[in-house]
Amino acid sequence: MKTLSRVFGVIVLCMVLLLVTLRFTGLNPYGDTPGRSYPGLWLSGNLVTTPVADWSFTDNIRTVKIQTNTWYLLPHSVTIWCIAYNGQLYVATYDAPVRSWPRNVARDPHVRLKLGNDLYDRTLSVVTDSTEREGVLQARAKKYAQKTSPDDPNFTVYHVLPS
Predict the structure, then answer these.
(1) Which domains does the chain have, with CATH numbers?
(2) What's the pTM?
């Protein structure tokens, strides 16, 4: 029994050391295609604290990484699409109820976005205005050359707001 306790203690200590190391080095998602990449934990990069007035520069960025807060206190980060519409930044997902990151956002809307090597702490808000939602989904279809109907109720669109 004493040996089992020591083995368990060593395993717990190793897990704690691993998590502390990952906290400082980050563990970004692997891959640049949403749905075909592996999730990560903490995002690493340079934190940008200056306000962004126009997000249209993201028209040249295919994907971003998003870090959400889980209920079990470890972050969850994945690769997602991003859409600039009227100078504002949006993210969207299909079938939000079955995906982890939208469920995390529903519980805690504070997120961290990684564009290139820059990190942005932001808040997400679900877009409920049908005109705005339709415009964002049309911009998404144009950017990614997809034929998705803006009327598809399975899409959830989030407006990226300052923290």
Answers:
(1) 29-162 (2.30.110.10)
(2) 0.84
Alpha carbon distance 63, 42 (integer Å): 17
d(CA 57, CA 20) in angstroms, rounded, equals 34
With CA atoms as reference, report the closest residue to 32 among 65, 59, 74, 66: 65
Q: Are 124 and 105 in contact (CB under 8 A)?
A: yes
**Bridge partner residues of 47 (DSSP):** 119
Query: Residues of the chain whose pLDDT is less than 50?
Result: none
* Distance in angstroms (rounded) separating the CA atoms of residues 50 and 94: 31
What length does the chain have?
163
Give residue 35's region: left, alpha or beta (phi > 0; psi -120 to 50): left
